[in-house]
Amino acid sequence: MSEVDWLSQLLKMITVTGRLEVRCAYGAPWRVAWPESAAHEIPYHVVLEGRAIIKDPKTQTATELVGGDIVLLPHGSEHVLHDGSGLAPARTHNRRGSAGWMLSENDGQGERLDMLCGRFFVRPPHDRLIRNYLPTNLVIRAMDGHGDEGASSASSHLASLLGLMRMESTSDKLGGNAVLNALSSALFTLVLRAASESEDAPAGLLALAGHPRLAPAISAMFADPARPWNLPELADLCSMSRATFMRHFQDKLGHSALELLTDIRMSLAANDLKRPTMTTAAVAEAVGYRSEAAFRRVFAQWMGMTPGQWRRLAREGQQSTGVSGQ
C-alpha cells in the first residue's frame, strides 16, 4: 500500500453519502442561515459563480468564497452565508424540482450568485472520527487545470466534478437526483484529497498525511491496525526518536498516535460487530486485542455501551431500515 492511501482505508471504514439539497440562484442582497447540524451531518456549499461570505456566529469569523470554492463544515457548525453588503436580503422564492432538490431564487438585482448547498451523512459511530480529526471549516479552491498545480491535481479534478454537478443541476434529465448524490459523495473524497495536497493543510489528519516524515506512521496504522504497534516502532518508521515523534504527532493531529490507533480499531470493531457470524472474541482478535475482556473495556469506554449493546442497537437499526449487515 502506498504511503498516502490512508484516505482509501478511512473511506472503506466509514460510510459517507452525499445529497444536494438546494441550488441558490440569487442577486444581491441575499442571506442564508444554516442551523447547527446533527452529529452525523456535514453541510457543504459550492460556489459555482459569484461571491459569498460565510460567517460563524459563535466565533465571529468570516471567510470570503469565490467561484470554484467549496466549503465543508465537518463539525456541523451553525453558519450564515451572505453577499457582504449588509443590506436586508431580497425576498426568496423556492420551488422543488422533480429531481428532489430545491431551486431557491430571489428578487435581488445586484451581483449574481450561483451556489449548490447540500449535506454529507456519516453513519454513527464514525461521525466522531470526522469531528475529532477534521477541522471545523474546510475551504478548498478548485483549479481549472491551467494553474501551477497541473491537470493531475485533486483541485483540477474538483473543477471537472463541479462542472458535472452544475450541468446536472441545470437539467431535468432522468436519474438526475441519483447522479447528483453520487457526485456529492465523490466531492467529499476529492475535497479531503485536495486539502491534504495543500501546502497549508489544516490541522488534523489532513495536515498529518501531508507531513512527509509522519506519513509512514499513519499509513501503517490504517493498513494494519491489528498489529501490536508501539511508539518506538511507529517512531522508527518515521526515522525519529520516540520523543520527537510524539511531539510532532500531537502538534499536527491534536491527538496521540495511540489514540488514533484506538479510534481506528474501534471503528473497525463497530463495523464487524454488525456481522452476525462474528463473535465478540473474533472481533477483538481481528482488531488487535488478545484479551476479549480488554477489548470489551476499551469499546465500552469509546462507545459508551458494551459490544453486545452496540450489536443489538445496530441490528435493530438495520431491521427498521431493511438493510442487511455488511
Explain the overall architecture:
With 326 residues, this protein is of the alpha+beta class. Helix content is 42%, strand content 21%. The chain has 12 helices and 11 strands. The protein has helices at residues 6-13, 127-133, 154-170, 176-197, 205-209, 215-223, 231-237, 242-253, 257-272, 280-286, 292-303, 307-321; strands at 16-27, 31-34, 41-49, 51-56, 61-66, 69-72, 79-82, 92-96, 102-106, 112-122, 138-141. The strands form 2 sheets. It has a 7-stranded mixed sheet. Strands 2-7-4-5 form a 4-stranded antiparallel sheet, with no helix packed on it. Helix 6 packs parallel to helix 9, helix 7 (231-237) packs across helix 8 (242-253) and helix 9 (257-272) crosses helix 11. The longest helix is centred in the middle third of the chain and has 22 residues, at 176-197. It is globular, with a radius of gyration of 22 Å. Residues 145-151 and 320-326 have low confidence and may be disordered.
Q: Give the distance, in angstroms, between the N- and C-terminal Cα atoms.
A: 24 Å
> What value does the Rg take, in angstroms?
22 Å
User: Can you give the mean pLDDT?
Assistant: 86
Percent of residues in β-strands: 15-25%
Global morphology: globular
The total of beta strands comes to: 11
User: Widest sheet: strand order?
Assistant: 8-9-1-10-3-6-11
List SSEs in N-to-C order: HEEEEEEEEEEHEHHHHHHHHHH
Quaternary structure classification? single chain
> Which structural class do you get from the secondary structure elements?
alpha+beta
Count, helices: 12
Biggest sheet, in brief? 7 strands, mixed
Extract low-pLDDT stretches. Answer: 145-151, 320-326
